[in-house]
Amino acid sequence: MPAVKPKNVKDDITAIAAKYGIEVVGFLKLDDHSRIPAGEMSLLNGVKWEDGEVDLSNVHDPLEIMPSAKTMVILGKKLLDDRSDIYYKASDGYSASVEMMLLEIAASKIIDALRKNGAEAGEYTSYYLKVWAVLCGLGWIGKSRMFVSKAYGPRLRLRGVLTSAEIGETHAVLPDESCGECTECIRACPVGAISATEVDRKKCGACPVNHRKLTENARAYCTACTTSCPVGKPAGHKHAGQAISRQ
């Protein structure tokens, strides 16, 4: 098995990501105690589903998926248009946005490259990848409970790759309070699903702006909280009006 050279491998991963238009690449160090630190579990709180909190048992430690993993590679693709989040039906069991398709292709190519370099590699398919992106120092969890990238705000879709290659780093965690006094996403939500401390996923999911049928093979989802966020917003960009009001 050939030796894995960290610098070369990281350069290869970055080059592959760039080829598929992936703007953000992060390298998170994992070890035998790698899990969401107890003090950071709040990153998962504040999201309600029906009458209770989200089920944290769905959050899997990376080492449960790949015991040999030393690094999680975080890939982030910026939304092509934050005013339009459209998922296309590719088959009966598969629908994805253009951004997610690009992430899937890039992740597959990166996994192939890692294996050719002699490392084990595979996808991280657990829920709440946003938490690992926070632990990777790429951003924080906003009032909308979405991941807010330092560079692109909530306009980033994520994908994870696990590998035995030791190319990860330890990063400082940015606190949820990084949103400061901003309440743009709270005011923009057309159904009032976002409060200062939590998000009601039941309200969000029932919003008429969500699941809008555009064609037989395409549905659109609400982007009110995404477009309203000032973090990473391009100069001159204005929040587009929503299809319905709070009333």
Overall description:
By secondary structure, the protein is an alpha+beta fold. It has one domain (6-54, 67-228): NADH Oxidase, CATH 3.40.109. Helices cover 24% and strands 23% of the residues. It has 7 helices and 13 strands. It has helices at 6-19, 62-65, 98-116, 129-135, 184-188, 201-206, 224-228, and strands at 24-29, 47-49, 52-53, 71-78, 85-91, 94-96, 121-124, 139-141, 147-149, 156-163, 199-200, 212-215, 218-221. The strands form 4 sheets. It has a 4-stranded antiparallel β-sheet, sandwiched between helices. β5 (85-91) and β6 form a beta hairpin. α1 (6-19) packs antiparallel against α3 (98-116).
Note the main attributes of this structure:
247 residues; alpha+beta; NADH Oxidase; 4-stranded antiparallel β-sheet; globular
Output the CATH topology.
NADH Oxidase
State the order of secondary-structure elements, H for helix, E for strand.
HEEEHEEEHEHEEEHEHEEH
Structural class: alpha+beta
Q: Beta-strand level of the residues, as a percent range? A: 15-25%
Shape: globular
> Treating each run of at least 4 consecutive H or I residues as one helix, how many helices?
7
Helix content: 10-25%
The CATH class name reads: Alpha Beta
As for the number of domains, it is 1
What is the subunit organization of this protein?
Answer: single chain
- Cα gyration radius (Å): 18 Å
Short overview:
This protein is an alpha+beta fold and 247 residues long. 24% of the residues lie in helices and 23% in strands. Helix 1 packs antiparallel against helix 3 (98-116).
Question: What is the topology?
Answer:
Elements: H1 6-19, E1 24-29, E2 47-49, E3 52-53, H2 62-65, E4 71-78, E5 85-91, E6 94-96, H3 98-116, E7 121-124, H4 129-135, E8 139-141, E9 147-149, E10 156-163, H5 184-188, E11 199-200, H6 201-206, E12 212-215, E13 218-221, H7 224-228
Parallel strand pairs: 2-11
Antiparallel strand pairs: 1-4, 2-3, 4-10, 5-6, 5-13, 7-10, 8-9, 12-13
Helix pairs in contact: 1-3
